[in-house]
Amino acid sequence: MGVAPSRAATSDKVADWSRVNPPSDEARTLPLPSVLVNMLTDIEPTQRTGRVFDGTNLRKSWITACAAAKLGTLTPVEGRPYDPVYCGLTLHDLRRSAVRNLVNAGVPERVAMKITGHRTRSVFDRYHIVSPDDVTNAMQMVETASLIKHGDNMVTKTASKTRKPLMALSSRG
Predict the structure, then answer these.
(1) Given this model, what pLDDT does residue 163 score?
(2) Which of 67-76's residues contact partners 24+ apart within 8 Å by CB, and which partners?
(3) CA dist 23 → 19, 20, 26, 119, 125 (Å)
(4) What global pTM score does this model have?
(5) Which residues form the domain of 11?
(6) Is 51 within a domain?
(7) Phi-psi bin for 78: left (phi > 0), alpha (psi -120 to 50), beta?
(8) Using CA atoms, how far apart are residues 6 and 3, in angstroms rounded to an integer?
(9) How many domains does the chain have?
(10) Rounded mean pLDDT for each run of 10 residues along the chain, 173 residues in total
(11) How distant, in Å, are the alpha carbons of 159, 162, 168, 170, 173 from that of 165?
(12) Coil, helix or strand for 63?
């Protein structure tokens, strides 16, 4: 995906995102948070395209910036001086974080899919990673909701006049 917010677009707090991955080739716009708008307005657009990020050099710009910020490392490769091996934070890591942050903030999942550019539920689900903390928090939410509704009697037992015997499957003739 080429990222192409222009200076004009950031002044409106909207980024123009051009998708260069087939089959979509569709341009999208996305509202930007104020903190990101402020960061982007401090960056001079490239002279060639007039954009803050140029899709032709985004990968190399990204890995260079991450290496400088100690978020990754560049390892030179003999015979390929302009193509070092990069290990560190990737754009897909940010996409995954964006999905988690949107869902955890309570943004409806269809809206989150529109923002992140996911067209299918199955791909979106691969990016929405559920952690053990998510499961723990969900159970705490259930417990809290139940306590609010039922007080201290979270589990209620209904009285039964007759008990039904349990049979193992193997005992059925």
Answers:
(1) 66
(2) none
(3) 9, 9, 9, 12, 21
(4) 0.59
(5) 1-56
(6) yes
(7) beta
(8) 9
(9) 1
(10) 42 56 58 80 74 70 85 92 89 88 92 90 90 91 85 63 63 52
(11) 16, 10, 10, 15, 16
(12) helix
